[in-house]
Amino acid sequence: MNRIVVALGGNALLRHGQDPGSPAEIDNLAIAADNLAALSVGRSLIVTHGNGPQVGLLALRAEAAGGPPSTLDVLGAETDGAIGYLLEREVRSRLPGVPLVTLLTQVEVAADDPAFTHPTKPIGPFYPAEQADALRESRGWRFWEDSRGFRRLVPSPIPLRVFQLDAVRLLLEADHVVICGGGGGIPVARGEHGSFRGVDAVVDKDLLAALVAEGVGADMLLLLTDVDAVYRDFPECQDRVERATPQELRSLGLPAGSMGPKVEAAARFAERTGGVAGIGCLDDALLVLAGKAGTRVRSS
Amino acid sequence: MNRIVVALGGNALLRHGQDPGSPAEIDNLAIAADNLAALSVGRSLIVTHGNGPQVGLLALRAEAAGGPPSTLDVLGAETDGAIGYLLEREVRSRLPGVPLVTLLTQVEVAADDPAFTHPTKPIGPFYPAEQADALRESRGWRFWEDSRGFRRLVPSPIPLRVFQLDAVRLLLEADHVVICGGGGGIPVARGEHGSFRGVDAVVDKDLLAALVAEGVGADMLLLLTDVDAVYRDFPECQDRVERATPQELRSLGLPAGSMGPKVEAAARFAERTGGVAGIGCLDDALLVLAGKAGTRVRSS
Predict the structure, then answer these.
(1) Could you list the active site residues of B?
(2) Engineered SS bond to B8: which of A98, B25, B49, B172, CB 3.0-4.6 Å?
(3) Model-level pTM?
(4) Which fold would CATH assign to domain A3-107+159-191+201-297?
């Protein structure tokens, strides 16, 4: 049975202006669940998901309540709980009798990853320029700008090791659909005497999905988002890449805050495993799987 | 190998005035992790935990940020993420090489459970009398009063079915320590056409632990909290119950917002399985296990 890892974009699950846990989010999750239910037929399915908008909004909630600032490992774990629950519930409603399970996933990162001094991952809402300036001044935040405004950037260290891979494999072998790796996994780094400590960062969920896909011996990695393919001419998006090798894809030099990590995740998976990676729109999931939509990445 | 289910009280993990994710919470979790690591030696271990203080505080955060009110299923799932993550991380730091896994656990409740019109589960912070009066007026909240003040009461329907029991069994058989059933499980009820919907409630984590313990064929259920035993003379607490049958324990008529659910959970487990249940202080975990502290419940 084909084993596929699907990574769902956080932006496809919670759109600009929507609240975590709101009916709008549940509508988006229902669309995701429709696609996952279709993908699961006759396949062994692992689902990961992003949490960029959600983790930023929970950070703002914690702040609004006046408590001490929460770190992104804890906030990320909170989003994993909420998104994982809603996704599993919506998939269960569509696949009665199919065993489903959601694992909280911890991921080891290097304490000295250069990402900690060079943040690249956009989270939370979009701010207008003046508010971004004020936050840059008062908090030292860094920002990413696109046509919709300014978004806070946080460190996104490289995922080195997923602790729960054995559990994922066991559950897949027992025919479970497994949801894991939410928000890129909860990042921890080695402390003293073999202990682990939490890290104030958000791991890229596509790189995490590639690591999980490699670890469970997946045949295919599907990176599904709100953009329908990789384009040679981002952000104009007229010239779609239908097929590419990892080398061709990397040579496009796409930005770190956008398609960059998807391209790198797809390239790594294709290079290291000989499998196929697909990048495309959540609504086109089955077409991307079949190579009839999106961008298909393969080593040769 | 003995199989034991341990239920950790939410109040033992986050004490009055502490913030979720704060160093104070992590200190409490470290104490819990020390005890869990000791309990795990030579035993098959399942850990569940409460979330009463945490879920109430996340509800206040969501409110402070001015968004729409979140329901307790989603907020509970968020607390499961954060507590499950921190607990697993702290246990891993003490048990290098032991496979650990945390499952998000969904639990089915009846849509017409009488609990929905008769809330009994205290959550969140303690309020002074005037503030409780104001909230009763403005929100229709109900309250539980003890010596520390007033706490909001929410519905706590009876857990009927845990969806992830097969996964828990598989992982135990592969020698994993399994953390599951956080916050009493995330409550869902049957909707139309086999679908499930979230429910605005908090299931009692001790009743959930009893259901899990029965489902996985546990030999023992340990209910650990910040109180060192069941007392005949609550709240004076001079006359400790050392040993009791389910019938003796129930005849004490302990209050629903306090020891009541623990007594009922211990009694059910002992009656239905013939196993032993222990109720006691988190710091005395090994002593409660050995019957040298706390209250021990057995059918005969």
Answers:
(1) 10-11, 121, 205, 262
(2) B49
(3) 0.95
(4) Carbamate kinase (3.40.1160)
